[in-house]
Amino acid sequence: MDVLLPIFQLLYFVAHFLASLALSVLDTFHLLHRVFLQVSAVLRGGDLPVLRIQADAAQLKKIPQHLGLVCIGKQVYQISNLANVITWAVGYGVRYVSLYDMHGALKRQRLVILQHLEEMCADINYTVITHNNEANQAKDIVENSRSGPHVIVNLLSLTDGKGSLAATARQLSSGTSKVNQELLESLKVTRGQPDPELVITIGEPISTMGFLPWQIRLSEFFAVPSLNRFEYGDFQTILRQYSKCEQRCGK
Amino acid sequence: MTWLVEKNRSWAEWAVARILRVGPVPRHLAVIMDGNRRYARKEHQDTLTGHTRGFHKLTEVLSWCRDLGINEVTAYAFSIENFKRPRHEVEGLMDLAAEKFAEVLEELEKLAKHGVCIRALGNLTLLPERVQQGVAEAVLATKDNDKYFINLAIAYTSREEIGTAMSELCRGVSEGQLQASDISEELLEKCLYTGGTRDPDLLIRTSGEVRLSDFLLWQSGFSCLFFTKVLWPEVTIWHLFGAIFYYQRHYHTLAEARRESLNVRQCMVEESDIDVCHAKFGEKVTAEHIAAQTCSRTERTDAFLKELYEKRINYLKKVCK
Questions:
Q1: Is residue A177 domain-shared with residue A227, that is, in the same domain?
Q2: Element (H, E) at A221
Q3: Are residues A97 and A128 both part of a single domain?
Q4: Residue B175's CB: how many other CB atoms inside 10 A?
Q5: Which residue of A153, A208, B268, B271 has the lowest C-beta tally within 10 Å?
Q6: Is residue A15 part of a domain?
Q7: pLDDT for residue A48
Q8: Is residue A251 part of a domain?
Q9: Hey, where are the domains in chain B?
Q10: Which of A133, A179, A239, A246 to mutate to probe the B interface, most B CBs <10 Å?
Q11: Whose CA is closest to B162, among B124, B123, B197?
Q12: Are A73 and B223 inside 8 Å of each other by CB?
């Protein structure tokens, strides 16, 4: 019997307790800061002007074409916040957005998402693609104006990752063509779309949670602790950091 | 230099290790050893010195892992993309690999005593012959050790791995060992170079880069990702402690997600068995039919996987001669 074990157990719980305490204190400060910002925004009047987003975007060296948003745990109930993030991203020039949660809750919330997208920005056309197990996709189109830019939103869940690769393997095994990277590229779930260059994980810890294993080869990962604390400032910081990332591609 | 570094811990390190071992500790750690060249530049030394320092650091990390109870470590040693680097650097890295694998053979007794098994992940045929031979000898000589596992990803990319696994499955189907309906997520996973061993619980990437760069894309699905700014040769045991502490704070979320994904996977296999039976017997499917289908499917896949494993071992044996 180890005499010291109870002491180490105690220290273990104390350490984790102190960490939790420190984090909740920080959370409180964050909340106060946010309330302060909101109040001052109300006093100044008006919400985020589109011009500001465009000016911020113009300062950056590179902007992702495809943005992945991975919801970890129970983050999916605030669709309106998610819709805000999409608007910012589109304002920066993102043309493909992938929304992911492993349980498929976002797929079930399709109608709510559509509604929010419709309400948001006037001159953007959205195509919302819901991927299903059997190679067929449900497409919903939100057309706001003919002239505006076109944005594709993918709704994804666990089965679109490894499950879809297994389905591809099954499909290829009954054919005669030789397996190579180009062929697999043409059969991936998000075929015809560039791979996400930037993935933001919402919630803790940082993990892909099974998000599109084939496509995330070179994605840069950033994290925000929760959806209801995801502010425009956070988004701006992430895109700034992203634009500084250099990829050497093995060299 | 040796593969098994044994160093005494300071009392503080020892105490923290003991405290962390009270909670859940990852059993499989994956590392992307980034920053060797930047380290060399910083210290005004040539690139290869940086890589050698990187290897020494790896052996040190392995000793920390043994102390903490992490019994499997996967390290990204060399990517297929790295062949694009300047020729002298690639040559130098290959020499380093050949040298280190040769050292394994000198230390066999000690490795066997500690139960250290060394495995190589990747398309070894892309390597120069001398390195292939060294790798094969080291892997074969340690394959029966079963306490600590070191997986070195060498000439590896995850996409190549998935592609190769799919070609193996296609070959199995065209040769009649498998039926197309036998292919499932689990079978594909077992055909990967990692062969369905435990997925990494914690993945650490050093030097401030925040991407996976084609490393264990499939296997890291429910791993805790930990990105740190420190360059690989400068990593200390305290960085590892930090990563484990972070892992412990989120252990339950990840464990639950992993369990759920396995359930989904199981459901899909069961559904596919039922579909096959429906196609065969029409409406008159009974529970016995389904059980028989499950049984014959398992037999086929087990035989196929056994053959695949033997094929890989035979390749290694052939290279050795």
A1: yes
A2: strand A220-224
A3: yes
A4: 10
A5: B271
A6: yes
A7: 63
A8: no
A9: 11-320
A10: A179
A11: B123
A12: no
Q: Which residue has the higher pLDDT, A250 or B87?
A: B87
Size of interface A-B (CB pairs under 8 A): 168
Check residue A133 and report its DSSP letter.
Answer: S
Q: What is the ipTM of this complex?
A: 0.90
The answer to whether the CB atoms of A221 and B210 lie below 8 A apart is yes
* CA A112 to chain centroid: 17
Kindly give the interhelix angle for A79-92 and A110-120, rounded to the nearest 10 degrees. 50
Question: What range defines the domain where residue A38 resides?
Answer: 1-46
Question: CA of B161 to nearest chain A CA: how many angstroms apart?
Answer: 11
Minimal-distance CA residue of chain B relative to A179: B167
Given a cut of 70, whether residue A10 has pLDDT beyond it is yes
Residue A249 located in a structural domain: no
Q: How far apart are CA A62 and CA A58, in angstroms?
A: 9
Q: What does the pLDDT look like over B171-185, one tens digit per residue?
A: 999 888 888 888 999
H/E run at residue A5: helix A5-44
Closest-approach residue (CA) in chain A for B188? A166
B68, B162, B238: which to substitute to probe chain A, counting the most A Cβ within 10 Å? B162
Interface test with A, best of B11, B160, B166 (most A CBs within 10 A): B166
pLDDT at A177: 76
Token digits of residue B131: 């390195």
Give the right CATH number for B11-320 from 2.170.150.70, 3.40.50.10770, 3.40.1180.10, 3.40.50.720.
3.40.1180.10
The domain that contains A115 carries what CATH number? 3.40.1180.10
Whether residues A29 and A67 share a domain: the answer is no
> Which residues fall within 8 angstroms of residue A187, CB to CB, at 6 or more apart?
A168, A171, A172
Answer whether residue B14 shows pLDDT above 70.
Answer: yes
Residue A250 lies in a domain: no
Q: Given a cut of 60, is residue A134 above it in pLDDT?
A: no
**Do A65 and A29 share a domain, yes or no?**
no
Number of separate domains in chain A: 2
Are A83 and A185 members of one domain? yes
Give B163's pLDDT tier (boundaries 50, 70, 90): very high
Is residue B169 over pLDDT 70? yes
- What does the pLDDT read at residue B278? 86
Q: How confident is the model at residue B310 (pLDDT cuts 50, 70, 90)?
A: very high
The neighbour count for residue A58, using CB atoms within 10 Å, is 10
Task: Give backbone dihedrals phi and psi of A185, rounded to 5 degrees, phi first.
Answer: -60, -40
How far apart CA A235 and CA A90 sit, in angstroms, is 12
Are the beta carbons of A100 and A106 closer than 8 angstroms?
A: yes
| Pair A130, A152 in one domain | yes
Task: Indicate whether B189 pLDDT > 90.
Answer: yes
Which has the closest alpha carbon to B92: B124, B56, B46, B138?
B46
Q: Are residues A56 and A31 in the same domain?
A: no
> Min CA distance, B268 vs chain A (Å)?
9
